[in-house]
Amino acid sequence: MLEKLDRLEIKYEELSELIGSPEVMGDQARWQQYVKAHSEISEVVGVYREYRKTSAELADVRQMLQDKLDPEMHQLAELEAEELAERQAKLEQQLKLLLLPKDPKDDKNVIMEIRAGTGGEEAALFASDLFRMYTRFAEIKGWRTEIMESNLTDLGGIKEMVFLIEGRGAYSQLKFESGVHRVQRVPSTESSGRIHTSAATVAVLPEAEDVEVEINPNELRIDVFCATGPGGQSVNTTQSAVRITHLPSGIVVSCQDEKSQHKNKDKAMRVMRARLFDQAQQEQQQEMASTRKSQVGSGDRSERIRTYNFPQNRIADHRIGLTLYRLQDILMGNLQEVVDALITTEQAERLQQLD
């Protein structure tokens, strides 16, 4: 590990010189490339330098302990050595995490899909709560959101919602949200006050660039139709809505939120690219004998990654055994503690595999 870190530090110094050289500064594309590479390794180099400094200080203090010191100085030196050893261990762990191979999809924007599952109108209202939670989380992070496709109920619930979240590191923060989310609460329409259990499914897809997914136009069927509102009623008389079918895979994407047929087509193609990219990634991982779990189950109540219990103000993530008693706060978009816990668990598992 230390040899790798030494090489990274040398590369960091080389990049620092290149960024400041007149030759590179005159070439905007090269300069941006070097700045990006420099930025990507700056954190690990900074931590490595702090690790080396701490290790040197620890060696000096341990050398002092070998010498004859008065009892008070010896006690102080022992305390300092203990603190430095603890700091060294933390920095070493941090370096191991920083050196873990990065998921190339982590910096991508995401296309999220939320669908109501078991539970009728209550499931649709819960899907609406999830959509609000994610858009507010994105707002807190300074990310941009854009609805790609929506299918609403008369009571304001969501049958299906497809939306883009645009921001650096969006996929790295949201990729663990894929799966079935279960809610337990008394529906507003329930007169007897009984607790109902409903479910909604969430899929998180990294947005694919044009170069990553090659789509043959001859393999697409594009249909246009009049947009409809809740209940199926027509909301305009122009054929602005677009439905794209990828014939080889059978994937269908519809978009009708924009008044322009051209804009709807562009949005539908972005979703299509993301779904085809995700499908290709899953096939590739299966070929490599990956044990990756399927993102979305059937929407049945029993298949769940997380439960939202309103009577107890409790949220429980079943994958990592995390339970928090501030459900309303999390539904307002304050999801970071849950996200951090999932990321930390995944990193710990990856570190264990390296040992």
Walkthrough of the structure:
The structure is a single chain. The protein is built from nine helices and eleven strands. With 355 residues, the chain is of the alpha+beta class. An eight-stranded mixed sheet has the order 2-3-1-5-4-9-10-11. It has a three-stranded antiparallel sheet with strand order 6-7-8, covered by helices on one side. β7 and β8 form a beta hairpin. The longest helix is centred in the N-terminal third of the chain and has 39 residues. About 4% of the residues have low confidence.
Helices, strands, pairings?
Layout: H1 2-20, H2 22-25, H3 28-66, H4 71-99, E1 110-116, H5 120-141, E2 144-152, E3 158-166, H6 170-174, E4 179-185, E5 196-206, E6 220-225, E7 241-246, E8 251-255, H7 261-287, E9 306-309, E10 314-317, E11 322-324, H8 327-331, H9 336-354
Parallel strand pairs: 4-9
Antiparallel strand pairs: 1-3, 1-5, 2-3, 4-5, 6-7, 7-8, 9-10, 10-11
Helix pairs in contact: 1-3, 3-4
In short:
The protein has 355 residues and is an alpha+beta fold. The chain is 48% helix and 20% strand. Helix 3 (28-66) runs antiparallel to helix 4 (71-99).
Query: Which stretches are low in confidence, meaning pLDDT under 50 for 5 or more residues running?
Result: 288-302
User: In whole angstroms, how far apart are the ends?
Assistant: 13 Å
Quote the beta fraction.
Answer: 15-25%
Major beta sheet, strand line-up: 2-3-1-5-4-9-10-11
How do the SSEs run, as a string of H and E?
A: HHHHEHEEHEEEEEHEEEHH
Write down the oligomeric state. single chain
| Structural class based on helices, strands and sheet pairing | alpha+beta
> What would the principal axes of the Cα set say about the shape?
flat
Q: What count of helical segments does DSSP give?
A: 9
Question: Major beta sheet, specifics?
Answer: 8 strands, mixed
Q: Would you report the number of β strands?
A: 11
Q: Kindly provide the radius of gyration, computed on alpha-carbon positions and rounded to a whole number of angstroms.
A: 26 Å
